[in-house]
Every structure is written in C-alpha cells, then in structure tokens.
Design a protein that fits this description.
With 419 residues, this protein is α+β, with helices and mostly antiparallel strands. The chain has helices at 2-18, 33-51, 61-81, 83-93, 117-133, 150-170, 172-188, 237-245, 263-272, 295-299, 359-385; strands at residues 190-198, 203-209, 214-215, 228-235, 284-293, 310-317, 322-328, 343-347, 389-394, 409-413. The strands form three sheets. The protein has a five-stranded antiparallel beta sheet.
Length: 419
Amino acid sequence: MDVEKLKNFEDDVLEGSRQEPEVDVEIEEPVDEQEAQQQMAEEEAAAAQMFYANIAEEMDDTVLSRLGSELITDYRRDKQSRGDWEKSYTSGLDLLGFKVNEEARPFTGASSVTHPLLAESVTQFQAQAYKELLPAQGPVNTQVIGDQTSEKSEQALRVKDFMNYMLTDKMEEYTTDFDQLLFYLPLAGSAFKKIYYDEVMARAVSKFVPAEDLVVPYYATDIKESERITHVLKMSENEVLKKQVTGFYRDVDILPSQQEDNEIQDKYNQMEGVDQTGDSDYQFNILEMHVHLDIEEYMGPNTEEKNVKIPYIVTIDEGSQEILSIYRNYSPDDPLMNRKEYFVHYKFLPGLGFYGFGLIHMIGGLSRTATAALRQLLDAGTLSNLPAGFKSRGIRVRDDDQAFQPGEFRDVDAPGGNI
C-alpha cells in the first residue's frame, strides 16, 4: 500500500514538471512599410528644403546691411583693379571698323577706312571654330573606355543621341550663345559660360557671360581657385519682382542703379548705332556673388576667433545695396563643403594672369599701323589728283593755318613777296 502511494506521488511530480508555466505575450500590429517609407521621404524633403532655403529671410536687417556693404565694397575694388584691361579692350574695338566716322583731319572728307586685318581674323576664327565645335551631327561624341562590348557600345550611342538632342533641340539658347561666345573670345581673350539646372525650365541651362560681366579679385589666377566671383546681372524691375513673388528673393525695396561711366557698354552702343534712353526699367544691376563667408562672424559679437569660411551665393541689388538672397553653395552630403562650380572659363591664348590674350593684344598694334598707312596712301592719292593752293590776287594772308580742300585754289591779293 505504501509502495503504491509512493509510486502515485512520483507520477504526479513528473507530470507537474512537464507542464509549461503560463506567459503573457503581447502581439504588436505590423507597421505599414509603405507608410514608414513615406514618412522618411517627407523628413528628407523637409531637411532638403531647409538646407536650400534663403538664409537671408532669417537674418537680422542690421547683419544683412553690414554684410551687403562689405561685399559691394569688395566688388568695386575688384572692378577698379582691372581698369587698364577695360581701356585696352575698349580701344581695341575701334580697330574692327564697324563704326564709320567722317574725318576732318588733315582735311574735310579725309579717308576714315579701317584695315580689315582684325575683323577678318576674328571672323575666320569664329567660322572655323563653329564648324569644328558645332558640327551638323551634334557637338557630343562618346568613346568606350576599357573592354568594348555590344552593351557598352549601345549605351554610348544612347548617351550621345540624348545629349545631342538636349543641346540642339531642348536647350534653345545653347547654339546662339556659343556662336556669340566664339566672336567675343578672339577679341577679349576671355569668355565665360554659366551652366546650371533651372528648376522652372526643368532642364540644364548654358548661358554666355561676357568677360566684362564677370569680376574677380586682382590676385586671382584661376576661376576655380578664386575666393570671390561676381556675376553682374542686368535685369528689369519686372524680372526682379517675379523672383520676389516666388520667394526666391527677399521682398525688399529695390532702386535703379546709378548711371556710372561704362566705357565698354558705351562702345558697344556706338558700334551698334543705338543710344541709351532715360528708361529706368532695365537699369537694375544685380550682383550674384559666389563667395566664402563665415556667417557667424557677422551675426555674433566681434571676436578674434576665426572659423572656416564656407561657400555661399549672395545676391545683392547694387542700387539699394539690399541683400536679396543667401543660399548655400555646396552639397548637403559633402563633408568638405566644396564649392559648386557654375562658370567655365574659355581662353583664346593663355595670359599672364587671370584673363587670356586675344587678337586685340596680339595684332592690335599691327592693325593700327596698317590702318594709318592705308589712310595715308588714300589721302596722298586724293591730294595728288586734286592739288590745292593759292593764286595771287594781291591780298595779304594773316592766318597761317589755312586748310585746303582737294582741288581748291584761293585768290590771294599779294603783288609779290612771301605769303
């Protein structure tokens, strides 16, 4: 009996040990993966929007005024430092002979012809360069690097066709601007292109920038190494207002730029035969400055602590000296914060500094001498065919400075002696 009870007790213990204890388990509902991805995308978009926002909207007016005044001073100093380059370029434009002037020296109707040496050289370069750089089949060609397979060859062909389609069909300004660049380049020695992505057009844009509209410090030798690049934009009041309405520029009052002496523009107007009017709609000079700045230096108190300057694009209205926008000019995922390059510098011949040498510098003196010699030959032939002088009639000539027209003989009342 005792043995039987003991056996039953052991069976009960073994059965109890085999039973698992009860555990409370909470089952979580599965998270919607698509919703999580959408939330992550919204957060990234918000961060990108904040990164590419106009920093000037959040800055104090006093800080902006101080920064704008300093940047405009730097721009005017840079522009003044290249004054000799502007004078040399302006005087060289007269050698093209596009403007015909009536000469009164050494006599009225004297020869005013200009030797076509410079104009012919510029035209030949433009025609030959256009033929080579913009052929009928398109300016882009591709080459497979490494092992050449059928897949790579087909891909290279697709890239070539697409880029030629974009440059010749979609980018309407590319051909005309490049043609204009090829005319400016041999004259000035330097020309620029500004390449960027336009959000409104939803495509890349390539625009020609004349050398006189891009200003760099006097010590700059290369555009990529220049710490300050100023692009002078000539805009109408309506264009500025459009950018203000869309939020690209700050909503501030702007003023027309002061009418300063611009020798290059005056020479362009003289060659084209146009005169500047009193219309102020197109007198707004917008300075787009690609600079390295330490924004905290202007926002905080004056301290001796120096921080690393990072690239920004600061846009200023020259007339009112108001800062319209400040945008970061580097990629958000770039730890080195390298500046984005928008400008491409074309040089006709490498110069001794930042600007290149053009035909004005290389054969300008020869063209001027050839013009003078040609005019002397024509004037000498004119005077030889139509001689002029005095014929005595007994009068006295009191003024020694007597100009004669070709073929003119004057009566002189002089019975004899020296006239």
